[in-house]
Amino acid sequence: MKLYRILKHGEFIRSQTPGEYAGWGPGKIFGRLDCKSGMRMKKENRVFFHRLEDAITEGYRPCQKCRPIDEKDFEEIKHLVPQCESLDDFYKMH
């Protein structure tokens, strides 16, 4: 049985499901599970998140290529990134 490394509350847990998003640890970027950029990364650098909020609270920013969140998603999470006034600002974060 395959287990995925899920990052939540600063710790890794193992799960049979990858969650909704995948992230690249060294760059702190997350995207959709089918993102071509994410699929090219080394497996040891890949992490998964069950929810959008988990990726953001861990300090990850969204991938500029697959653009995993839209305006509706941003409205729901913008309280987690008060330094960003818009979705475009969030995508440009470093």
Describe what this molecule looks like in 3D.
- There is one protein chain.
- The chain is an alpha+beta fold and 94 residues long.
- It has one domain (4-92): DNA Methylphosphotriester Repair Domain, CATH 3.40.10.
- The chain is globular and about 40 Å long.
- 26% of the residues lie in helices and 26% in strands.
- The strands form two sheets. It has a four-stranded mixed beta sheet with strand order 5-3-4-6.
- A hairpin with a 4-residue loop joins strand 3 and strand 4.
Secondary structure elements and pairings:
Elements: E1 4-8, E2 11-15, E3 21-24, E4 29-32, H1 36-40, E5 46-49, H2 52-57, E6 61-62, H3 71-77, H4 87-92
Parallel strand pairs: 4-6
Antiparallel strand pairs: 1-2, 3-4, 3-5
Structure summary:
This protein is an alpha+beta fold and 94 residues long.
Q: Which class of secondary structure composition applies to the elements?
A: alpha+beta
Please compute the radius of gyration using only Cα atoms: 13 Å
Instruction: Please tally the β strands and state the result.
Output: 6
Q: In which order are the strands of the major sheet placed? A: 5-3-4-6
Instruction: Quickly count the domains.
Output: 1
The main β sheet shows up as:
4 strands, mixed
User: What gross morphology would you assign?
Assistant: globular
- CATH class reads Alpha Beta
Q: Judging by the overall fold, what is the CATH architecture? A: 3-Layer(aba) Sandwich
User: What amount of the residues lies in strands?
Assistant: 25-35%
Task: Count up the helices.
Answer: 4
